[in-house]
Design goal:
Blueprint: E1 4-5, E2 8-10, H1 13-16, E3 25-27, E4 36-41, E5 46-54, E6 57-60, E7 70-73
Antiparallel strand pairs: 1-7, 2-3, 4-5, 4-7, 5-6
């Protein structure tokens, strides 16, 4: 499992033709799937948060600022062993 950094970048000229006029930046790195619970870290603490996006934008539910934070998908649960 690898930590992914939340990082924005300015739109290219080609992207400006596709995105609405009010959009100036896009995510430069992979982001979680919509409504995915993920591990998040600021380099000092780790917590579980939920990534949410709609037509207005994308964000973490608990963290107001995502720039510079890191995220990682939660590991899969172990398979339940029946005795």
């Amino acid at each position: 499992m690898t930590w992914n950094r939340f990082k924005l970048r300015k739109l290219t000229d080609e992207e400006k033709e596709v995105f609405p006029d009010d959009v100036e930046e896009v995510w430069d790195t992979p982001v979680p799937d919509n409504e995915e619970d993920v591990l998040v870290s600021d380099g000092e603490k780790i917590w579980i948060d939920n990534w949410y996006h709609d037509g207005e934008g994308a964000c973490l539910i608990e963290a107001f600022e995502t720039e510079g934070l890191y995220w990682m998908s939660l590991p899969e649960l172990p398979k339940k062993v029946l005795k």
